[in-house]
Each structure stands twice: as structure tokens, then as C-alpha cells.
Amino acid sequence: MNENTNKPLGFGEILDQTFRIIKTRFKTLFMITFLIMVPVLAIQALILSLSGRSFFTSVESGQNILDQLISGADAVSTTTIQEDLLTILANFFLIIAMPLIAGAIIWTVKVTRESETIPVTKDMIKRALSRYWPMFWSTLLWCLILVGLLVPVFMVIGFSAISFVLNPIFGAILMFLLSIGAFIGIGLLMTRWSLYLPVVLFEQAAPGLSKSWQLTKRQTWKFFGLIIILSIITGIVTAILQLPLIFLGNSVLFHLLNNIISLITSIVLFVGYAVMYFDSTTRQEATDLKEMISEYQVTDPS
Question: What is the residue range of the signal peptide feature (predicted)?
């Protein structure tokens, strides 16, 4: 798949290339996620078992499907503090694995775009592993920046809730406008820094925020829209696949399958994210070339 990798892509073309890559390289993408997640899921199963959860949900005799659904949903929603803390600890290992999964998928997209060669799963993981720690610390910094931006926003929205008590209509409008403004403002700002991961991976420039800011220039709204569209698609597919898991209740198997489904569907986001990065580098190279030609024409003695 190297027919359209040397020209800038439009909004729809990025989506089209994203799903074509997923279709042609799904086995490799799935195996990357699976191999990295095997030890993580084993650790998660051990930690969740310590909370007293059963591996399978026991179904009482005589229960119909509706009763099982209600009891399963009730078990998921009503948890103890100990169970919640151990769940957070188990998900922490999932966070640790995410940069490696993303890096290996980005490498797979790069190989797929540049040649017809089928990427080797272990090779993609090894390439990402060599830059794991810079990617991890850069991701941690990006998340801290996001949290730092969200805290004051939530405080302002929280204080504005007081006006809702005094004047419900005005308060509701104010909270809605503040929420939309914060979503768009923070979303666009974080989009400018969003391409840090492939920058760290390929250009070895950690944390890669300044380079990402340069790559997303004049592309912010497009990338922001693409991230929203891909997130909606991923969220819908994830919700549909996770819905039957409610029958498992608050069991270990419920949490493991829940994480597996989330990671598999997140492949859509990671592949689209990688295509956006390569599109931005193509545009930058084209811009740099135009600037070189323009400078040459100005300095040409003839």
C-alpha cells in the first residue's frame, strides 16, 4: 500500500486509508495487541483475584435472562473500596503497556504505507521497545498537562453550578457554554501536542511536544475532527461488544474481557493516529520543498 503515501491526504482520505490498513493488516495489529497484553492480563487476573472476585459469575438457578442482566449490572455498579483500589492497580499495568502497543502499531502503519511487505509482529514490537521509556515518560507528561488543564476548568464549571440554583435557565446555559468552550479549547490545544508519540518514536526527540506543535500547524481542526470521529466509532463498537459482558457481573473474567475488547477496538484510533502523523510529515516536507524553491528563485543571480 504505497500508492498514495507521497501526497497530502484530505479528511475522508485519512479515514479511508485508516480502515484499509486495518483490513489488510488486522492479523498483525491484533497479534501485537495480544502478545503485549498476555503478561498484563495475567497480572490483572492475579490482582483482581486478590480482591475476592470469582473468576466466573455464579448464576442462581431459576433466573431468567432479565434477572441475570439486572444482577450482573448491580454487581458491576456496587463495589467495595478495596475492589475499586485493586481495579485501579490492575488498570495501571494496562497504562504501562499502552505506549508499547501504540508504538508497535505506528511502526506497522509505516511499513504498510511504504511497501507491500507484511510486517512481522515481533519485529514491530522490538522496534517500539527500543524507544519505550522515552515514549512512556512523554505520555506521562502529556497526561499531566491534560490534567493540569482540566482541573481549573472543572473548578470553574463547578462554581458556575451555583448560578443554576439561583437561576436554573441562566445556570444551565452558562454551564453548557462553558463545557462546550472547554471541550473545544482544550481539545484543540491537546491536538497540537497529540503527535508527540511518533515524533519520539522516529525522530528521537523526547518529549516531542514542540515538533508536534509544528506538524499540526494548519491541520488542527482537521485532526481534532478526525480524533472525534474515530473516538465515536471506537466507542460505539466497544459498547456493542461489551454489552453482553454485563451477564458476567463483577467477575475477573468481566474485567479481563472488557480490557481486551477496549484494546482491540482502540486499534482504530492508533492506526488513524499514525496515518495523521505521516500525513502531517508529508505536508511538512512539501512545505519545506516549496520554501527551498522559493528561496532559490530569490537568490538566483540570473
Answer: none
pTM of the model: 0.82
For residue 105, is it within any domain?
yes
Summarised one tens digit per residue, pLDDT across range 140-185 is: 999 999 999 988 888 877 777 777 777 778 777 888 888 898 899 9
Is there a contact between 296 and 66 (Cβ–Cβ < 8 Å)? no
Rounded (5°) CA angle 85-89-92: 140
* Count of domains observed in the chain: 1
| Closest by Cα among 102, 78, 75, 73 to 242 | 73
- Domain span at 22: 11-133+221-299
Give the single-character DSSP code of 245: G
Residue 257 within a domain? yes
Handedness of CA 85, 86, 88, 92 (dihedral sign): positive
Residue 104: inside a domain, yes or no? yes
